[in-house]
Amino acid sequence: MKKKIAILGSTGSIGKTLLKIIEKDKKNFDVVLLTANTDHKTLLKQAKKFNVKNLIISDPKSYKVLENKIKKSQIKIFNSFNSINKIINKKIDYVMSSIVGIQGLDPTYRMIKFTKNIAIANKESIICGWDLISNELKKSKTNFIPVDSEHFSMWYGLQNFSPKNIEKVFLTASGGPFYKVPLNKFKKISIKNALKHPNWKMGKKISIDSATMINKVYEVIEAKNIFNISYKKIKILIHPKSYVHAMLKFSNGLIKIIAHDTTMKVPIFNTLFYGTNLKYKTTNIDINSLNNLNFKKVNLSRYPMVKILKLLPKKHSLFETVIVSANDTFVNLFLEKKISFLDIHKELFKILKSKVYSRYKNIKPKRLSDIIDLNNYVSTNIRKKYIIYK
Fold this sequence. Notes:
Blueprint: E1 3-8, H1 13-23, E2 29-36, H2 40-49, E3 54-57, H3 60-69, E4 76-78, H4 84-87, E5 94-97, H5 105-111, E6 117-120, H6 123-128, H7 130-140, E7 143-146, H8 149-157, E8 166-173, H9 191-194, H10 204-212, H11 214-227, E9 234-238, E10 244-250, E11 255-259, H12 265-273, H13 287-291, E12 296-297, H14 319-335, H15 341-353, H16 355-358, H17 368-385
Parallel strand pairs: 1-2, 1-5, 2-3, 3-4, 5-6, 6-7, 8-9
Antiparallel strand pairs: 8-10, 9-12, 10-11
Helix pairs in contact: 8-11, 10-14, 14-15, 14-17
């Protein structure tokens, strides 16, 4: 029987990678739903290639364009995730949630009850809405697998172990494009420079987050939420080759080092085929990399964003939404050439330390709208300061 799957954000890098994996085993899959925000051209190509009968495209203009293109086909197109129950009437086998940004929170939450297994690559769902997501997972009896290489590695390393047995977790970071750049040259960092990640091909937003290292702050928050372990047990190590993705030290003295090629194909493949005997064709073990792991502590002068970890509350709160929203806004301002690279972290810390926003450390999100409304509030207030309504 074919495995029924849906991909939220199929036109992004994660979605495209997953479809490439499925293409090699096409006869065993029935892709029942693909979604995108604006990229109607890629979405339609994917639908035709994989014989997908249901599409969701969120942007109204893109929806109208696509609607005209599929008039004579059997493809059904929807403009909202409110229509999911019209598309799926019983649980499918697998959902990949890879919509980028806070926009992915609501679709991720909605899809949980419609699938047996959900792989989540949407950071905001795990950072901002984990309590709500995890409750819905339990309620719907849906299995969850993290997609990020670090969290997938932790998840895999914890098979037959309890997170309670973890003594220390080390998440690795490449150091980004400025690992060796002299600090006195940071004032002149350009957008082009910041987008040149040494190991990974990513979108603009996540590339900047990697350059500032806030992506690792996010991953620490995710690890704490997913595995219910304290921040004190989680450390970041610089590892330029990105071969080791996580290192787990257990209370029984054992240490597990999880390594794989620098490609998202490995964790994506394993979320899709976990529990099967299907083999992933990979390169031989990189002995040279293992002999030269070159782990280093984080230099806070080079990566001041990591200091955010000291500001985090112990319990899940709306403060995480403030961090995500404010950072997103400042990164966009940098990409719009309104602020400098160094301004991203300087302005962010002003926000996080202000009384207006630090009070959210004591407020827990009770519903998705709490997160979405706060995200809009923070972003709007920051942009008002920079008078960017054009």
